[in-house]
Fold this protein.
Amino acid sequence: MFSKPSVKTASLLILLICLLFSLVATSAAQTTPTAAPEPDTRVVSTGEYVVLRSDDWVSSAKPVLPPAHFDARDPDSTATATIIVNYVDAATTWDLNPQAKTAFQFAVDIWETLINSPVPIVVNAEWTPLDPGVLGSAGPYTVHRNNVSFPRASTWYPVALANALAGADLNGGSPEVVARFSSVYANWYFGTGSTTPSTDYNFTTVVLHELGHGLGFLGSMSVSSGIGSWGYPGSLPTPINPLVYDHYSENNASQPLLSFPNLSTLLGDQLISNALYFNGPNANAANGGARVALYAPTTWRPGSSYSHLGEIYNSTPNALMTYSLAKGETNYNPGPIVLGIFRDMGWSTGPIYTPPTFFSLPDQLLLKNESRSDALDLTHYTILGTSGLNELTYSIINTPDPAAGVTLNGAMISINPTTNWLGNALVTVQVEDGTASDTASFTVRSVDQILYTYLPSIAR
Ligand SMILES: [Zn+2]
């Protein structure tokens, strides 16, 4: 129990607290070395931008179709991001080719569906000569560190992500993304169809890729004369801090690259080890539980190595952020792994794509001369993933014994065997949503008689 303090004691207490507070404030001002790091901004140099290289060969990969509800104007779209494109020197470049702007907007619509930000993302788009073999290059215009809303301290965040986390435009009137596209290619495909001519590079695919870098898919590591390094200084020469992406990169032995000494051949060796991974919970979940391979060829390739997905993702729904694009390649979706990486770095994203898959399908046992229309509704055996039901296509992909009379109408399997047919027919069906597919099989069996075996009730 406490007795009520007198007015005199209370005012003395207040005086003491004020004195203490002013002491704390003075000492904090005097001990700057131990103070929390100050928010800081750095302009990314164009030499740090990541590039997309052109392949000479023609892609044989299936087109990767846009995500569902990809148009931000679609009422079912979950998008909250707004991307504003500033076409640089438009009168002498972009305006001469309105198709290119339509293709650009298509890529913008797709990204807007996938990420959330309350702050408009301004993209400076340049149509300009780039090095031979380079289709595009991009990076964030600025990076930011030590804002109170960032999940990690002493870490640079690309500005679009930094803004989304802070809920404010941290670089004011400057753009968030700078993206450049090669004006020296004669063979761009500016259409938005899913079939890219085998002589052309799909422009929307390149824009999607470059926006991916500008929004944050890039790390700071590089190799020069065998020496590996990471990070940037800020307004002061020290400290050097990594990009948020760098926190998740690791070598084959699961050692974080940031655990290697900066400016060392030891780090340099890791970066050209052909075995680098992004290890983050969301990225891994989108990759079947395994960490994600990064591009790490045995020769350091500036602008390509480390800041791209590994070559094993070519011809998959995750191919967009590989380091190169083939002629005829069409990719209108960054894929689940990239969205997982974005989430790990701090982005709020829409649902991460999961493909439709089948439960196991039940075998169909019929008596001789029995027919079964509407035998199997495949929708009942489909795990939708993030696909909408109406976008799924079902097909029979093998050639079952025609005597079994198996037909598919929409998602409904019917079985009408020929007269007196007895036997087995294997039926393999596929479900597809434009991005991925799954298959499953069941057997149709027609028998003379069905022998029921009654199990004791305890075993049922
Ligand atoms: Zn790239």
